[in-house]
Amino acid sequence: MDDRLMYRREFFIGGSWAAPASGDRLGVVSPSTEEVVGEVPVAVAADIDRAVDAARTAFDDGPWPRMAPDERADVLERAAVVLRKREADIAGITVDEMGCAISQAPRAQTGMVAALFDYYAGLVRTYAFEREVVTGDRAGLVTGEPVGVAAVIVPWNAPVTLAAWKTAPALAAGCAVVIKPPPEAPLSGYVLAEALAEAGVPDGVVNLLPGGREAGEHLVRHPGIDKVAFTGSTAAGKRIMSLCGEQVKRVSLELGGKSASVVLDDADLAAVIPALVGGAMHLSGQVCGAHTRVLLPRSRYAEAVEAAAAAAQAIPVGDPHDPATVVGPLVAERQRTRVEGYITLAREAGARIAAGGRRPAHLSRGWYVEPTVLADVDNSMRVAREEIFGPVLCLIPYDDEDAAVRIANDSPYGLAGGVWSADPARALRIARRLRTGSIAVNGHYPPFPHVPFGGFKESGLGRELGPEGLRSFLEPRSIGLPPQLRGQGGDQT
């Protein structure tokens, strides 16, 4: 990639490129070569303070929250145009900074970014930000007010996509944002900031500065932040939620998952199993909503294990720059160590490695793990209960539909899931019984911009995407209307 995209010297604060307060710099290491491929400055408290102050001024005194929704929509639509032109830059950077296979980039890194800005532009043109309510001799005007300044904190697996999930609705609502990209993959977020500036977002409405855990905690604690929107691990989400609780600060959390796909006894295993294996290995398994538990009828279990092992062994593993590669490296050496540790735990607990389980023999460099299928897994095992975040799929047998539902719901998480059957109506009946935020029926799978995404239980709080994503950045307000003002604002109900 162009050095201009990979070596950054400044932050984006207040509508311009700003020098960092310290000389701390972070080398970005390629997961496939283990070599430094880029560099960014590291935000310290003084940088965070400047960014929040810029966002606070833009929100409190600037034009953005006071624009008509149509005016904000025009800017969002221009942003979508610019972002489509920059998709190759975003994809190329993520290949180098976090190891995303280039074949996966349209789905994971760019496919929803411009589309989200278009979606929220269209939504706010028709959204009822005000409504008038009359009952008897009383009347009120109910308005949706932008929540204020939002901290957008995103992980490394899809940094621009997940920043767009939060930034597009926040801007549509009239908020200002401070975006903190992850230290493992901080470079692609700069393209988002550039695109929004080119689209005409007013100065200070969007600010971007990478930093580590200390910078994130300072941002969350900052009294100038009205809301935190976070995607990441459940452990980090719990910490953020506790910090927000100290100030009764608004928070939305999209956290971990251990999602189950229920394969019913009438499913076409020859078609279903390769799809499930491929989905679990997407982005090297580093996807919070991945279906990493597959529940299979005991009568067809051996057949399914054999098919899953064959599908995993057929997946091309290698250089993420190669269009033929499907599974690239894990983001960091520590992540590979974590995944290998879980594979060891599985074996010690009695699970059988049906495929993979090792480092690829043909790759001497890079943080790779073979696509791995674990058979004879019991739902009580740690590998079935904890998020591994790597290319590891657990196959769990069940005896009947009720048992399948019970096993699927027996998890501290509830982010995603799926049901597969030759009878779509039967699959839908089972899907309705699953306690999870998003459910695929025969592969017809959210997320897409128009429907909400988020989790039950420890998988999160609140929803992103859809009208729900916009509402998460709005505060409802009620204004009493005297008789002289009734019928002049909002839709009377």
Briefly say what this structure is.
Pfam families: Aldedh. Belongs to the aldehyde dehydrogenase family. By secondary structure, the protein is α/β, with parallel strands linked by helices.
What CATH architecture of the largest domain would you give?
Answer: 3-Layer(aba) Sandwich
CATH topology of the largest domain: Aldehyde Dehydrogenase, Chain A, domain 1
Shape: globular
Percent helix range: 25-40%
CATH superfamily of the largest domain: Aldehyde Dehydrogenase, Chain A, domain 1
Which stretches of 5+ consecutive residues score pLDDT under 50? none
**Strand segment count:** 23
Mean pLDDT: 96
Order of the strands making up the biggest sheet:
14-15-16-13-12-18-19
Number of domains: 2
β content, as a range? 15-25%
Question: Secondary structure elements and their pairing?
Answer:
Elements: H1 3-6, E1 11-13, E2 16-18, E3 25-29, E4 36-41, H2 45-61, H3 69-85, H4 87-98, H5 105-110, H6 113-126, E5 130-135, E6 138-146, E7 149-153, H7 159-173, E8 176-180, H8 188-199, E9 206-208, H9 213-221, E10 227-231, H10 234-246, E11 250-254, E12 260-263, H11 269-281, E13 293-297, H12 301-313, H13 333-349, E14 352-355, E15 372-375, H14 382-385, E16 392-398, H15 401-409, E17 413-414, E18 417-420, H16 424-431, E19 440-441, E20 456-457, E21 460-461, H17 466-471, E22 474-480, E23 491-492
Parallel strand pairs: 5-23, 7-8, 7-10, 8-9, 10-11, 12-13, 12-18, 13-16, 15-16, 18-19
Antiparallel strand pairs: 1-2, 3-4, 5-6, 6-22, 11-21, 14-15, 17-20
Helix pairs in contact: 2-9, 3-6, 3-7, 3-8, 6-7, 7-8, 11-12
